[in-house]
Amino acid sequence: MYRSSMKWCLIAVTTVTISACSGTPKPKTEIALSNTALQNAEVAGAKDLAPIELRTAQEKQDLAGTAMADKKFTTAKQLSEQAAVDAELAKAKSEAEKSRSAVEEVEDSINLIRAELGRAKGQ
Amino acid sequence: MKNPVVTTMPLAALLVLCACGGAPKKVDSLETARAAYSDASANEVVVKHAPKELDDARNALAQGQRAWNEDGKRKHADHYAYIASQKVKIAKLIAQRKEDDARLESMKLERQRVQLDVRSQEVDRARADTLAMQAQLDAMQARVTARGIVATLGDVLFDSGEAGLKPTSAVNMDKIANFMSSYPDRNAIVEGHTDNMGDDDYNLDLSRERAASVRSALIARGVDSTRITIRSLGEASPIADNNSASGRQQNRRVEVIFPDDDSQISGLVGQ
Questions:
Q1: Which residue has the higher pLDDT, A23 or B112?
Q2: Which of B80, B99, B114 to mutate to test binding with chain A, by most A CBs within 10 Å of its CB?
Q3: What's the rounded Cα separation, in Å, for the pair A82 and A90?
Q4: Is A11 inside any structural domain?
Q5: Residue A19: what pLDDT?
Q6: Alpha carbons B86 and B209: distance in angstroms, whole number
Q7: A38 lies in which domain range?
Q8: Which residue from B minimizes the CA distance to A111?
Q9: Which of A90, B153, B172, B182 has the smallest C-beta neighbourhood within 10 Å, fewest atoms?
Q10: Is A57 part of a structural domain of the chain?
Q11: Is the residue at A45 inside a domain?
Q12: Whether domain B132-266 has CATH 3.30.1330.60
C-alpha cells in the first residue's frame, strides 16, 4: 500500500513539474503592476524619503526586464513581484516619514508657544 | 494504469499523497517571515490600520508553504517569504502613519488652545496696562486731548506774580514725575501761559520762568533733563475770558503736555 502511494506521489509531482515548466505565461501584468508601484513611490517622495528602498525596487525591476528578454519568465515574474512590494515599502516609508515630521512640527510650535506663555507669566 | 486519472487529480489530493511522511517541512525564510507576521497580527494597532497588508502577508506565507511542500525549491519558498516579510513591514508603516495622522489633528487643536491662552493673557495685560495708566492720569488730573495728555498746573501753585513754586505744589510734581518714570518713552513739553495784564515781554518772561521752575522741580525728582522741553506763550493762548478775575486766573497756568508722538517735540528748541 505504501509503495503504491509513493508511485502515485512521484507521478503526480512529475506531472506538476512538467506542466510548470512548459507554457509559463509572460508576467506582463506583474511588470505593469511593479511599474505603477514604482511611480506611486516616486510621487510619494521616495527619492528623498526612502532612497535605498526605492533603488532596491528599481534594480529588481531592471533585472526583471533582463529576465524577460532572456525568456526566463518565472524569474521575471518573481523579480517584478518583489520590485512591486519593495516600491510599496518605499512609498509606505515616505508617507510615514511625512506624517511623523508634520506631528513633530506642531509639537515644536506648541512648545514654543508654551515657553512664551511661561515667560510672559513670569513678568 | 491510466494517465488521465493522474492529470485530472486535484492538487489537494496530490498534497495528501505527497505528505506521506507526516507534517509539512519547515524552511528558515518562511519561519522567520511567519514569526514577523505573528508579531504584527498580535498588534491591535497594526490590525486596525492595515488589515489588507497583513492578509497579503498571510497569503504569501501560505503560497510559500505550498510551493515548498510541492517542489522543495528554496528559491520559490524564499521568494514568498520575502513578499510576506515586506508586506508585514508595510503594514507596520501604514499603522504608524495613520496613528500620526490622527495625532496631528488632536495636536493642532491643542495648539489652538494654547494660542488662545496666549491671546487672552495679552488681552488681560493690555487691559491692566490701560487701567494703570488711567489711574495715573486721574491722579494728575490730566486730560487726553488732540495734543496728547495734558496736565494743568494752576496759578495757585505758584507764588503770586512770581515764578517760584509753592510747597503745596509738591504733590502735583510728585505725580507728574511718577508718571514720567512709569512711562519712560513719554516726553514732556512744559508750556507757560499768563493772562493779558502787563506788557507782552514781561508775560513772555514770566511764563518762561514758571515753565522752567516746573522743569527744575521734575529734574529734582529724578526725571532726565533731556525729556523735558519748555515753551513760553505768554498771553498768546488764553483758555478763558481775560475780562473777569476768574478768567484771568485760569489763563495764568502751566501746562505739562505729553504728545502722542515725539515729532511734536523735535521742532522745539530747549529754552
A1: B112
A2: B114
A3: 12
A4: no
A5: 47
A6: 93
A7: 26-96
A8: B111
A9: B182
A10: yes
A11: yes
A12: yes
**Cell numbers describing residue B127:** 487691559
B9-37, pLDDT tens digit by residue? 555 555 555 545 555 678 999 999 999 99
Neighbours of A113 (CB within 10 A): 17
Counted domains in chain A: 1
- The answer to whether residue B140 scores a pLDDT higher than 60 is yes
Residue B9, pLDDT score: 53
DSSP state, B227?
G
All structural domains of chain B with their residue ranges: 24-116, 132-266
Give yes or no for B52 touching A (CB within 8 A): no
pLDDT of residue B23: 58
Q: Is residue A13 part of a domain?
A: no
A63-86 confidence digits (pLDDT tens): 999 999 999 999 999 999 999 999
| Below-50 pLDDT ranges, chain A | 19-20
Report if pTM > 0.80: no
* Cα–Cα distance, B266 to B146 (Å, whole number): 18
Distance CA(B70)–CA(A101), nearest Å, equals 47
* Inter-residue contact B271 to B232 (CB < 8 Å): yes
Amino acid present at A34: S
